[in-house]
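Sharing a chain and its predicted structure for anyone who wants a worked example. Both blocks are below, sequence first, tokens second.
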Amino acid sequence: MLRRRSLSVAVVALVGLAVGAQAAGNPAVAGPPTPAQAGAAASKKLTSAVHVDGVLGHLRQFQRIADANNGTRASGTPGFDKSADYVAGKLKRAGYRVTRQSFEFPFFQELSPSKFSQVSPTATTYVNGTDFATLSFSADGSAQGTVTAVDVNLTPPRASTSGCEAADFASFPKGNVALVQRGTCDFSVKVANAAAAGAVGVIVFNQGNGTEAENPDRYELFEGNLGGPVPIPAISVPYALGAQLAGTSNTVVKIETDTLSETRTTQNVLAETPGGRADNVVMAGAHLDSVPEGPGINDNGTGSAALLEIALKYAPLAKSAKPTNKVRFAWWGAEEGGLLGSEHYVASLTPAQVADIGLYLNFDMIGSPNYVLAVYDGDNSTGTGAPPAGSGALETIFRTYLTSRGQKVIDTEFDGRSDYGPFIAEGIGIPAGGLFTGAEGIKTADEAAAFGGVPDVAYDPCYHQACDGFARTGADAAAYQKIIKAYGKKKIVGNLNVFALDLNTDAIADAVARLSFDTTGISAPGDTAPASASTGGGGQRGPIPTA
């Protein structure tokens, strides 16, 4: 106490001398900039240095890599490995400390389109992608049998535990095809229980809860991820078709799948600055992998390329300006398989290493052709999640920048469908934020009024398809004609909206630069505390849901 008081007296005395000197005519000496001021100055330099042409250059290289490797950059394929080589090589030459973290993961690929038909009582051929979809990690093969509904509930509100317990299959006839309803447990649990009961195939139909107008995602056809190989073919269908099959006796169906499921190795690429506080690390990440079906130029070439260009331009700034905090960039592998790369990374951290990460920023799909400008809802203003403390301040940084550029902004919920999920999970609790421009969801009239574009058309009509590239091979030509007419030819390049990509790249650069100097209200060295967070599905981005 005494020592603190003496220091205060000394400070008062020094202040008095300074005031006296100034009164005598001596000029006042300007103090060093505050962290906020230093961050603002760094933002100005970095946003000026980063150009969308550089981002597009990286994206064209990703396209060339995919073109040379069977049209894909999926984890576990040479296309991903070459993408990782490209990113890591650029970062090493820029002076970063680069780590390539390898891990094994379950790989799945649909080798040719699956088929689904009704054999009797009414011969019907169902349409792939409209009437049914293959669940990821479905077994390869053919399954024909009578449909048997398992503990389904067709009465509103249609709460469902269908197939979640082995007891649901107590009287199931071996050799039949199980019809189960979405809800409560993972798809993998339902399929495993069906296989154990002797089913030759599984149909998972959507739950049908809520109303079709307000909850279309619970009625329409959906994609699903079983998380790993299963022993029998498995598909998903919309609620209406599932209810029809459940209500028709002695229906015989046939499921034919041509799939590959095996264990492969992939990697995360991490790069960090040599300097800066290691106990308050600013992290920014994007998944590098595409789906097996295509090159993934928007999903998620855009996030990866923008982050790479920012990292390259940040390196000389970090050397000269000497930011307060260490910055760590990450390019995740196997996100499309279920956030596997980011989950592996977070699981490998010690509690002390978790505490050293001050915040995490995530960028997944930031150049969708029929875009919206969405910021992760860090302050939970929508009431749909429980992001860790400090996430609201990250949301404010992005909102402030985008509105300063004359743009409108909307919230996107923390629904656990991208690589921020492991960082905000219960027991980890790292503040998170990020940007998103839309995936397979349909643009509303209000969104078209705010952001331009075309209502009643997907934000990205090539989401998870081969046409997610510069050539847009096989794309819905009519949809893109409307989008190009709405935005103009110069803004639409392949499956990208260059205006949105440019704007979001600048917003990321602004956030990284500011946070490298100042994390006030977000984090302090070593202060990360466990916090719960929403990790539920139902959103429209990132990996395929598992339940």
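Comments welcome. The first helix runs from residue 2 to 23.
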